[in-house]
Amino acid sequence: MHAITIEQPGGPEALVWAEVPDPVAGEGEVLVDVAASAVNRADILQRQGFYDPPPGSSRYPGLECSGRIAALGPGVSGWAVGDEVCALLAGGGYAERVAVPVGQLLPVPAGVDLVTAAALPEVVCTVWSNVFMVAGLRPGETLLVHGGSSGIGTMAIQLAKAVGATVAVTAGGPEKLARCKELGADVLIDYREQDFVAELRAATGGAGADVILDIMGAKYLARNLDALAVNGRLAVIGLQGGVKAELNLGALLAKRAAITATSLRARPLDEKAAIVAAVREHVWPLVASGRVNPVVHGAFPMREAPEAHRTMESSTHVGKLLLTT
């Protein structure tokens, strides 16, 4: 088969479409013929040499895919060769075939085509596990999403609205904010021109956000704490703004607030399987009904992964970027 390889860390040109050995489905795994994968920020970090795959996982980038089951490994039941699926991966999505732990498989939702389904697993599992399973967003609460026009952001907006929350977003520029509004965002904040803490307080009568989904990390830590409501929960899922910051524990105590930080890629298989099962139970019906939809900016042939990475790094897109085999 062919896959995108990274011989040496570097820029987008480090991504090379090359012939590689076929994967084999091990115990509890299925082999998937990949129809499409999607580009995530983690793929860029891996390309740059800052985010190695977990031990034992594929060394090729790609944290999600869609396709058809080509073979079943030992101990697998409930699936058949030819089934159309999408999957959460620890790596290997940028390839023509990938071996997937059976607990990380999902059926392609009704009403979603096979290629577009590749835009779902990583963002849905990330949002559901952090915003709902960990932070416990409830109907009537306010969610602040940083990077509202990203793949994560566009999914977070829709899922939060589906459960009856108010959604505030930050994004760069009126076009991205307009798209967030179309998806259901109630409070639109241009981080280039506005102070998100002041804007959020004004929009909530001074209360702030009950839950904040943050991709920035250190750069936003103090302001996120300011923006939290009493009993608020801050979920950090990215470090685009750095890894070290000073935290005012007094302010955290005064608000009786909580800060969590999670990643998905390196979690044990049983934890990933539990998240995937929750997504299938709670989110897949929303997708099938059309209340929640994948947002896809565009698709590139997989061999053109370098161009897809350049597009992501330019931050001109809204939603997901796909790679098709």
From TrEMBL:
Leader peptide range in chain numbering: none
Keywords of the record: NADP, Oxidoreductase
GO molecular function, one term: oxidoreductase activity, acting on NAD(P)H
Transmembrane portions of the chain: none
Pfam family, one: ADH_zinc_N
Keyword flag Magnesium: no
Membrane listed as a keyword: no
InterPro entries found in the cross-reference section: ADH-like_C, ADH-like_N, ER, GroES-like_sf, NAD(P)-bd_dom_sf, Quinone_OxRdtase_PIG3
Enoyl reductase (ER) domain sequence ranges: 10-323
PANTHER family: OS02G0805600 PROTEIN, QUINONE OXIDOREDUCTASE PIG3-RELATED
Protein name in the entry: NAD(P)H-quinone oxidoreductase
Organism (species): Streptomyces vinaceus
